[in-house]
Amino acid sequence: MPTTIIAVDRDGTRHSLVWDEDQTLMETLRDNDLPVLASCGGTASCATCHVYLEEPVAARLGERSADEAELLADAEGFRECGSRLSCQIGHDAAHDGILVELAPEG
Amino acid sequence: MRENIQTASPAVVIVGSGHAGVGVAAGLRSRGWEGRIVLIDAEGQLPYERPPLSKDLLVPGAPAEPVPMRKESWFESRGIERVHGTAASIDRGRREVRLADGRALHYVKLILATGSTPRRLTVPGADLDGVLMLKTLPDARRLAAELAPSSDTAQDAARHVVVIGAGYIGLEVAAAAAKHGCRVTVLEFQDRVMSRVTSEPVSRFFEGLHGRAGTEFRFGAAVTALEGTRSPDGAGRVEWVVTADGARHRADVVVAGIGVIPEQGLAADAGLEASDGILVDAGGRTSDPDIYAAGDATRFASLYDGASQRLECIQNARAQAEAIAADITGQAPPAPEVPWFWTVQHGVRLQTAGVRHPDDDVLLRGDPANGKFSVIYLRGGRVAAVDTVGSLADFNAGKKLVAQRATIDPSLAADPSLPLDQAIAPLEPAAL
């Protein structure tokens, strides 16, 4: 069974995407033409792949790394619970059906 | 990979498959371009990320494969044709790109994303085996093999690695070599590391970091020759690096990281304006309305101060690619991100937003002794660039200040306990 997620664009449009096993969440969003800049290529060096996850999903991921926490702390629209760098989220079948919302740019 | 080039069918032809080339292809499709897109790729492999070549791919236990920029299926599903070949010339009258093997591709728009090549050593002995440079995946694999030779050839003694040039690439290689247990010497002509891109406090911090890992530095060092024992047919392997002061540095491997040269030959031969970079405007346009250029190969006026510049960074390649895709599809280009750069050495990250000038005022924020600090560069009282070392807490704030050309209160900005964006303040009248 493929892992499918719902991505919510910045204008509220919902897209159903298949998340391939060999990709991070950022790569899945980017390769499906969601406007994710991801300018560092997935190395937790910028915050341009910032997304919001629902609380139980974010909780399942555990603590953010130091780099991720520092980058997100002053990112536009930071939410203590739910803000994540999508490049740091690997595929997990347990994420099937999750809702991923793009955070504002900037 | 498709090789059946339909020469009669018009296409956007892109020369080069780095971030700039792939970025134009991606941008065109996401903006609704339905015509053919042909990506000419000299390496003949799935386009890959280059930053890891000097970092993750060199250290012990490195992954065997590079990180692909996009999956094979992504290129296929978007109908982006990949052609393995080397572009040899442009016939602007016929709107054709000729490949070295004689094939010709007709274009409606041509994008030159030809990148750059490492500057070569020109001293005697530079042709000896064991003298390496780093740009491509094959370069990285060759270097990784030299740093960690198989056990039957390694003997017991640590290998001597001499790095020429203490820029990003040289220092990343030095760090990887030290991790392999090599004895590393870095020869640098200037008086400190990374002198082109950063200030004294950052240079000294990174020098210390490498020094504690056993790496030795020789500043003011001008390499005059490489020496090795040659067989009668002239082949030989490097053994020594000689500097102008007469010193001889033992070397099993030499890595030159002495800058890059923009690949402008294709453009210049076709009569396009080029001078240490293909000249383009803010939209990536060359002096021919049907030809664009993007990435390391280009030279253009800074959006911030109008200075003529080349920017060797992914941000620039992608911003130019987006501008070109927007122009071809008749859309407004997005505002470019502030140029930014990063390096990781011995696990410590230096990340820079904006482009520093040597005569900028330098403001230290935090204490380098703590391993986490920032440096703010002020030009005419406005934030021109920000270096962050060992911490990314100031990076996004710094990027915003650079984008706004913000003015700050230096005493507030120097206090790391205050968020950087709280230091924004009107210019002192004296500075106006």
From TrEMBL, chain A:
Highest rank taxon of the organism: Bacteria
Cofactor(s) essential for the protein: [2Fe-2S] cluster
2Fe-2S ferredoxin-type domain segment(s): 4-106
Gene Ontology biological process terms in this record: P450-containing electron transport chain
Keywords tagged on the record: 2Fe-2S, Iron, Iron-sulfur, Metal-binding
Classification via InterPro entries: 2Fe-2S_ferredoxin-like_sf, 2Fe-2S_ferredoxin-type, Adrenodoxin-like, Adrenodoxin_Fe-S_BS, Beta-grasp_dom_sf
Segments forming a coiled coil: none
Pfam families from the UniProt entry: Fer2
CDD domains to which the protein is assigned, alphabetical: fer2
GO terms of molecular function: 2 iron, 2 sulfur cluster binding; electron transfer activity; metal ion binding
Family: Belongs to the adrenodoxin/putidaredoxin family.
Name the record gives this protein: 2Fe-2S iron-sulfur cluster-binding protein
Organism of provenance: Sinomonas puerhi
Automatic annotation (TrEMBL), chain B:
Residue ranges of every copy of the FAD/NAD(P)-binding domain listed in the record: 11-321
Named cofactor requirement(s): FAD
Domain of life, source organism: Bacteria
Protein's UniProt name: NAD(P)/FAD-dependent oxidoreductase
Residues making up the signal peptide according to the UniProt record: none
UniProt keywords, alphabetically: FAD, Flavoprotein, Oxidoreductase
Molecular function GO labels: oxidoreductase activity, acting on NAD(P)H
InterPro entries with a match to the protein in the record: FAD-oxidoreductase/Apoptosis, FAD/NAD-bd_sf, FAD/NAD-binding_dom, FAD/NAD-linked_Rdtase_dimer_sf, Reductase_C
GO cellular component term, pick one: cytoplasm
Lyase keyword on record: no
Record-linked PANTHER family: APOPTOSIS-INDUCING FACTOR 1, RIESKE DOMAIN-CONTAINING PROTEIN-RELATED
Reductase C-terminal domain ranges (all copies): 340-422
